[in-house]
Amino acid sequence: MKTVIITGGNDGIGYYMVERFLSDGKNVAVLDLELNKISELKKKYPDSLVGFQCDIRDVAKLKNCISEVVQKFKTIDYAIHNACKCIFKGLEELAYEEYNEVFQVNYYGAINLTKEVLPYMKKQNFGKVFFTSSGVGVTGFTNISSYASSKGAIESLAKCMNIEYESSGISFHILHPPLTRTTSSEPLPVPKEFKADACKVGNGLAKNIDKNKFIICHSFSQALQTKMAYLFPIYIGRMMSKMTARANMKK
């Protein structure tokens, strides 16, 4: 039975990924600031689901949590950094501390998780590490530079890690969900009809987790849109920003 560690799995896309992993017969360990939904889900999966209240920025706590996961489930087959922080402000409005806070969670959180799971994966000669990215990390978007920049950074990190660990049996991947209706995206001034359903996205990503691809999407149409974003990043970013502005003016 394979084991998944996921940060940010108590809500949104992460929660529905956890549900799908469990229904597929995987062991799952969730690391999050809150565990209310996971505690309820554990009633259905008492033996294959564990939750740890953990801030991804707290390396000492993270190390202890991962050690407990290995003691319980013996292996770490998948590690997913899904926790995120998003602040919707323009560059001049953002304090340095706010930029740093976003990067501490989104980028350094990915590094923290990776550094802690790698020793176990190297012993196994196998492991898959996933970072949840975003289309805005490729295309850019108005008033979201801290979040978008952090997502662009983890994409580069995944590419570098794939090269460094090419012969180790460990691979690195990017999860590319669309803009989705979640708690973190709620303040974003984008019409609801532009946002995908979190259950559908989470299920699709979990279902496709074993695909031998660097970029994992929840659906074929999202994979096509993601390819377009990589081909025409500036054009797509400007177009989406203008479409959002026009939609908000009509409200």
From TrEMBL:
Name this polypeptide is given: SDR family oxidoreductase
CDD domains linked: SDR_c (cd05233)
The species this protein was found in: Clostridium paridis
Pfam families, A to Z: adh_short
Domain of life (superkingdom): Bacteria
Entry GO CC: membrane
Transmembrane segments: none
Swiss-Prot/TrEMBL keywords: Oxidoreductase
InterPro entries listed in its UniProt record: NAD(P)-bd_dom_sf, SDR_fam
Family: Belongs to the short-chain dehydrogenases/reductases (SDR) family.
An annotated Gene Ontology molecular function: oxidoreductase activity
